[in-house]
Amino acid sequence: MDDQFPRDGAWAEAYVALGSNMGDRERLLRKAIALIDAHPAIEVGRISGIYETDPVGYTEQPPFLNMALAVTTSLEPIGLLRQLLAIEQQLGRVREIRWGPRTIDLDLLLYHNVRMDQEELTLPHPRMMERSFVLVPLNDVLDAAHPLRERVEAASEAALRNGKEGITLWKTINWRSASEPFGS
């Protein structure tokens, strides 16, 4: 991977992790997807199943619903991150306890072949290979040609086999189905 990203309005593929454990978790995930896709410079492509997972780090909280998205975007990595943070705020995200309860959590995991380590953003996400709640949904949507594909697939299969972090498939959803409105 390198630190270059498409320029001059070209679109790049990126991967986003979503999580929620407060309120109507599924509705919040759906609303986040709709808001991401509504941005003129971001298009949601593939979505993972929804997985219910035990909390990690701060464990005195309800279980999470987690998923991942493959998106294409003409935003640069920092611009995409800032848009995701704005959507978190719009959906009531408050940061009080590290790894604590949240209405919505949106993490930029991967962006094209970019490697970067800045105060605001590190790519690939520095802890994604340690977290089953990220790896299993990411495995659902990661492009077959992605350089991390084999590692993500192996780690995801091991996590499911070992029951790591209490991760179970909770539900699949049909993205863009006329019978399942996402914006509600």
UniProtKB/TrEMBL annotation:
Look up the signal peptide feature and give its range: none
Which molecular function terms from Gene Ontology are attached? Answer: 2-amino-4-hydroxy-6-hydroxymethyldihydropteridine diphosphokinase activity; ATP binding; kinase activity
Query: TM spans, by residue?
Result: none
Q: Which Pfam families match?
A: HPPK
**Residues in domain 7,8-dihydro-6-hydroxymethylpterin-pyrophosphokinase?**
98-109
Database matches in PROSITE patterns: HPPK (PS00794)
Q: Identify the pathway.
A: Cofactor biosynthesis; tetrahydrofolate biosynthesis; 2-amino-4-hydroxy-6-hydroxymethyl-7,8-dihydropteridine diphosphate from 7,8-dihydroneopterin triphosphate: step 4/4
Task: Supply the CDD domains for this chain.
Answer: HPPK
The biological process GO terms on file are: folic acid biosynthetic process
User: What catalytic reaction does the record list?
Assistant: 6-hydroxymethyl-7,8-dihydropterin + ATP = (7,8-dihydropterin-6-yl)methyl diphosphate + AMP + H(+)
Its gene? Answer: folK
Q: Which UniProt keywords apply?
A: ATP-binding, Folate biosynthesis, Kinase, Nucleotide-binding, Transferase
- PANTHER family recorded for this chain? 2-AMINO-4-HYDROXY-6-HYDROXYMETHYLDIHYDROPTERIDINE PYROPHOSPHOKINASE (PTHR43071)
What EC number(s) does this enzyme carry? 2.7.6.3
> Could you tell me the superkingdom of the organism this chain comes from?
Bacteria
Q: What is this protein called in UniProt?
A: 2-amino-4-hydroxy-6-hydroxymethyldihydropteridine diphosphokinase
Record InterPro entries: Hppk (IPR000550), Hppk_sf (IPR035907)
